Amino acid sequence: MLRFKKAGSRSAVHAFALILLMMYSLTGFSQQQQVYGELSFSNSGKSEAQQDFLTGLLMLHSFQYEDARESFQKAQEIDPDFAMAYWGEAMSYNYPLWPNAPEVDRANEVLAKLGSTPQEQLSRAQTAREKAYISAVQTLFGKGDKTERDLAYLQAMKQLSAQYPDDLDAALFLALAYLGSSHGGRDVSIYMRAAAISEEVFAKNPKHPGAAHYLIHSYDDPVHAPLGLRAARVYADVAPSASHAQHMPSHIFYALGRWQEATASNINAYISDANRAAEKDQTLSTHGYHAIWWLMYSQLQEGLFQSARATLDLAASHHAENPSPLSQDILVFMSASYAVETGDWSYTLSKDDVEWEALDGRSEVARAYVTGVEALQDGDINRAGSMLMQLEKAEKESKDVGSQVMLLELQALIDLQGGETEAAMKALDQATALEESMPLYFGPPWPVKPSHELYGEVLLQLGLPLRAREQFSAGLSRLPARSRSLLGLARAIEAIEGRQAANEIYRELNTIWSNSDAENPVLDDVWALSRGAE
């Protein structure tokens, strides 16, 4: 079982953590057969090595990179001449859709086990098809910068897939190569090419984890998310042993504002990764922390503030036991999100939880923003100005558009408190324009406070509901069913057209908050309105 210890003045084994752990223990997951989906991949390896190789390939398609690596290594131990097992291990060092940089040197160390030169490595492959796979991975980890290598790899996979049209995995690795060539952007033509390929494979083998997985990634924006619901409904069942497969449906649920389903997905993802950590006597992995972060955000949208705080405490417990840059950054982002969504700007993590001086980039931006808003709530404009300077420094380090937006947001709030309304509006105009230039986002929002929502709230405060309605509507087109934006929109419509015109929005809020906390300071002032709109 997971081990917890005291984190500051909190009890690390929070009631919610206990509930999750009880659920985890009741699954009996470690005693069940591990299931990662189904696929067929002909190769020249020994029969005794096939199970480990195919399991590694299934895991690879679900981005369970460390576990996939172990399986490919086991296949190599059984069959040292199994060239494709080395290919698979090398592929486990590429992270095409994650911010992590590919581990080129480690991948090439794996390929070096096949031979000291590319020609020697190719000679170990037993068939022309296997040589094509080896050649493609050599390109992926070959010469050039990441962009050059990704595009060269994309071309290699186009050729391989065209040459072997019945190879479903070649098709899916081509789809993934397309997605990986976007490099943080969201070129619809690229995503739809990947979707078209994945759809064909999904039709031929609906239990292939890569097909459902890459379909979700192709469709996880508010415009295309309805097309991804089918894959989202099955992926977790296709690969129940993969934490990432439990999490991925929430990409679609987030993009559609289906918060209860998103919450369930990420509870399952956390449980799966916690089970894996206990079984291997390891700490929570990237998948587990990712699930906790997303879980808290959907709980906040549901008005489950007490549960969200418990989830935040659970993350703090993991960090207190095994501090890491990852756990620290996640904790800071979660803390910032908690403050923004609850309006509890005084909530901060204790200094025992986070090494504040070690923060940089986005995590420092989030901390400085929340601390700056807290200072304004306390009427301390000088401290807010100090936080603005720290945010500006962190923004320069992060070179991130979302960080620029948050810098402008805090500047606008400082201007507003100082009576500089025109300057505040100008800053918010710039902030919303910058956010509009960003790709559509599908997770907990970055910037942590959506600029259209903030602008709408400011406009309502200034008695400008018509303009506020425009801003809330624009924000909801990017982040559907976001509770605070819906609440702002309802208030703006009510101010313009009266209560009856706003009832539809209040009813939507009432549905989202159907299980919310009995005492919720954000929702208390609209309970009567939402209940009356039923």
Question: What does this protein look like?
Answer:
By secondary structure, this protein is mainly α. 69% of the residues lie in helices and 0% in strands. It is built from 27 helices and no strands. It has helices spanning 15-27, 50-61, 65-78, 83-91, 104-112, 118-123, 128-140, 146-163, 168-180, 188-204, 209-219, 225-238, 243-247, 249-256, 259-280, 286-301, 305-321, 325-342, 361-377, 381-398, 401-417, 421-436, 451-461, 465-478, 483-497, 499-512, 524-532. The radius of gyration is 25 Å and the shape is elongated.
Question: What descriptors fit this protein?
Answer:
disordered N terminus; 0% strand; 27 helices; 534 residues; mainly alpha; disordered C terminus; Serine Threonine Protein Phosphatase 5, Tetratricopeptide repeat; elongated
User: Roughly what is the average pLDDT, rounded to an integer?
Assistant: 90
Order of helices and strands: HHHHHHHHHHHHHHHHHHHHHHHHHHH
Which ranges are low-confidence, i.e. pLDDT below 50, for 5 or more consecutive residues?
1-15, 21-31, 530-534
| Main sheet makeup | none
Percent of residues in β-strands: under 5%
SS field, number of helical segments = 27
Which bin fits the share of residues in helices?
55-70%
Shape annotation: elongated
- Which CATH class of the domain at 37-240 applies here? Mainly Alpha
CATH architecture of the domain at 37-240: Alpha Horseshoe
